[in-house]
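quick one
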Amino acid sequence: MERREFLQGVATGALGLAQGSGARIALRFAHLTDVHIDAKKPRSPAGLARALRVVESLAPQPAFILNGGDAIYAALARDREDTAGQWRLWHDVTRAETSLPFVHCIGNHDIWGWQLAGDPGIAARADYGKAWALAELELERPYHAALHAGWKLIVLDSTQPHPAGYIGRLDEPQHEWLAHELHATPADIPVIIVSHIPILSAAAYLWFGAEPTDLQKAIIQRVLVHNDVMRIKDRLAAHPNVKLCLSGHLHMQERIDYLGVTYACSGAVCGNWWNETTPAFQEFGPAIAVVDCHDDGSVTHALIDVA
Ligand SMILES: [Zn+2]
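structure w/ zinc ion:
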């Protein structure tokens, strides 16, 4: 099937579903996660441009693009000049290829310097850690929420510091903020939660792509999923208006229905980190997701190949 026919299929399919239930699309947005743009990855600028052209060709047009995090290749252990170059490239390509607004979620690779152990003074710098990414993405803080066409989008910050690098979880102030945000949202407003690292995932068990060779590998790594999943799923159970939890990070695509919430990982725009010879990570090549929120409170999540 040609991509154009497929895109029409996505639009028609979503509309067909909506018409069947008497509902209409209230909000459409595109979820582009794990772009990992970097001049050292020669396929990355054209790959992001291609993904943005697919977004631009959608009918109806998305209201915004949700950047799911890891917009740049890696800032955790790269120096200042290298990190600045990655952000420059992100801005150059996004400004050239789309005029749609962005909603940003930050990923672990957007964080500057947490793994630059050779530079002891780095932590004192104003742009250390998440500060630099927040400035580039024009965010006041790494977690935020807003209403879009009658739907609430809650964007979380999954990445917390840990002696071994980082860990997937919310910090305490964010747990409190999430509780308050859900409590303050009327029960008839449907909610979508976005995190870079999946809150709940089955694909994380398959991340290594091989039979576990020892007990250690049979355990999901603390960096692959939210370690506070029990606490978050208990919180969501008290708010049945939470419909969908979107994520990226794994570069794998999955949808899980669990206790009334769909947990969807939208793969990666970069597929296998822009690898030249093996463009797919396991079975998953470059992809984006289109999310259609209907006025009856139902939501659809469709993946589109952008290789
Ligand atoms: Zn990530």
